[in-house]
Amino acid sequence: MSETTSTNEENKLPLNGRRAIPPNYSNDEENEVPEMEAFGLIPRGFNPRDYLRVVDIYMFKEPHEINKQEHHTDRYYNPKLIVRRGQAFQIQIDFNRPYKPETDQFWLEFLMGRYPQQNKGTYIPILVGNVLKPGQWGAKIIHRENNSIRLSIMSSTTCIIGKFRFYVAVLTPFGILRTRRNSATDTYILFNPTSQLDAVYLDDEKEREEYVLNDVGIVFHGNVEDVKSRSWSYGQFEENILDACLFLMDKAELELSGRGNPIKICRVASAVINSRDDNGVIAGSWNNSYDYGVAPSAWTGSVDILLEYYSSKQPVRYGQCWVFAGVFNTFLRCLGIPARLITNYSSAHDNNANLRLDFFLDDEGKVDTKLTKDSVWNYHCWNEAWMTRPDLPVGFGGWQVVDGTPQETSDGMYRCGPASVQAIKHGHVCFQFDAPFVYAEVNGDIFFTRMEKNGTQVVENIDTTHIGRLIVTKEVGGDGMVDITEEYKFREGSDEERLALETAVMYGVKKQSIQDTTYQPQTDVDMDFQAQKAVLGNDFKVTITFRNKSRNSYTATTYLSGNIVFYTGVTKREFKKHSFTAKLEPSSSNSFDFVIKSSEYMRDLLEQASFHFFVTARINETGKILAVQKAVMLEIPTLRIKTKGELVAGKETSVIVEFTNPLKQTLENVTLRLEGPGVLRTIKKQFGRIPMNSTLTWEVRFTPMRPGLRKLIASLNSDALRHVYGELSVQIQKP
């Protein structure tokens, strides 16, 4: 008896006292979905055929058809429907008779995993409505003909990434009738870098083409003096690669409900790309013996590696940094996360992340290899993935370092990232994940230390310029090399670079040895940063104010950095840099004004006209750091909407939209839109150009249908200016 009990126990899923259902981290497993879900006893004579019944479903999933064309998924060698989240796609349902909206009720269901739950995003019922809201699940009928309807379906911009099972459910008085399980209607949903609401939104089409859709890349290797390059096939569209990439998330045991978040996906993927501690994709080998495997230098791309792992479920031998990075890049691009492969020349591997690589010398001045644990790599490859970082302060989104090469553990596993490149550059290494480690890879100082016989250490030499000499990636749209060192660090030896280093130390990166005192801030000097309110297209003033409350005279080496950012806080470009030394007299305040000229920011300005300023200052006499950051928004001009005469339902009237171009340039390719829900359908009009300071007037004639309080909404879009809106509330009278 006892034996049978124990085997039963083993067959049951492991449950613990904290969760009602087992963990749900397999995209492949399924649950049984009943075709007939009865509400109670089914009366005799009930025949499902008497009710609305689904005869066929057409997914428009061929590469030349609308869905894969509009979603840029036509290159995936995969027969199923593949769409990107937050963007509408179409399907057609054929019923056994014409659909009658008054009496028939049906809905759509998307399910993932073995335990679908609505609050986890793994069971998604979609009712058919009249409007699609951007970025939210919904469906509406766009065409009806005979027994067929065509639906437009919108998925959520935070939807889980992966493969969903699809059902159509019809309500009858006695129960729910569902379509039979049909794998041909399975739908893959991926990240959408073209949707402004998606966390991976990338605004530049050429960059999207490169960082998401290009399936071949270049790996730069060699060393600083002799840069070499080689091609690498990412192959993210090849047969079974998408399934292999989804399997990696199952292998990493990432809960299905967490798979809509690129931060989580990158973090678990950086662990599962290497085989250390989780039997991941590639086994690393740096010792020049590659028995029972393939030498890292022999691989030409990611496809063989991923397919071998997908079928064998065992680590593929062998890889080194560029192999890990190449496979990681395939994974990210395949799922729709913009990604690129980075090479850092003279890369520090700092075992204790103290920004100091200790090379111990013996009595003769040679390096003592037993004592020396830190190392400098000729080059090291990692990846950058593009995403917003809602978990960090504004300004730290954009490119994030992720590294699949196993070097050090992070939270107990061999993984690294995502770490904000912007945070690394400015020394703000307090922000997760693993920024101190990456900061040390590109910034450490090399200390040459001699051990005395009595155990004391004598620092003989410090090399502050060797680490992170050159950081590069492949150019967009070509095979050339782009130097991106300045995205990671200020110029070697510059005041700003030392300042960023000291900021990193202030934020808890270990520097120097144990004798170091704990950080003590400069309390007798305050620094403040203010920006003048400004309208887009105008110059504006920013002011840095120091207040010296002490009786000492100080000098402060100060650095001002102005960055153009997306409204999500992602940095696009640094457009202003200025360094100066401020003399601070005792017990006095000093203000320093700087004019930000429109010519400096207009060329790269993003639609929401927002900036992010960093100011860091070092008090030279004490070596203490002051740091401040601020987000600044410019005011964007608005559209003016006026109506002529009173508005009466059923009577023709007109509305006037006006806009004056405030910029010191002509606006090209101007498009205006006007709509009023319940008042008029969207009307679009294109205007070639609006010269500077001139006013555009557009009169629209329309007939309001229904009385009541309504809203007219207008928008203007052009090459140089976006996010221009106007609105007007109108009362429509009864006739």
From TrEMBL:
GO biological process, one term: blood coagulation, fibrin clot formation
Keywords: Acetylation, Acyltransferase, Blood coagulation, Calcium, Cytoplasm, Hemostasis, Metal-binding, Secreted, Transferase, Zymogen
GO MF annotation, one: protein-glutamine gamma-glutamyltransferase activity
Keyword Cytoplasm: yes
PANTHER family per UniProt: COAGULATION FACTOR XIII A CHAIN, PROTEIN-GLUTAMINE GAMMA-GLUTAMYLTRANSFERASE
Job of this protein: Factor XIII is activated by thrombin and calcium ion to a transglutaminase that catalyzes the formation of gamma-glutamyl-epsilon-lysine cross-links between fibrin chains, thus stabilizing the fibrin clot. Also cross-link alpha-2-plasmin inhibitor, or fibronectin, to the alpha chains of fibrin.
Protein name: Coagulation factor XIII A chain
Lineage: Eukaryota, Metazoa, Chordata, Craniata, Vertebrata
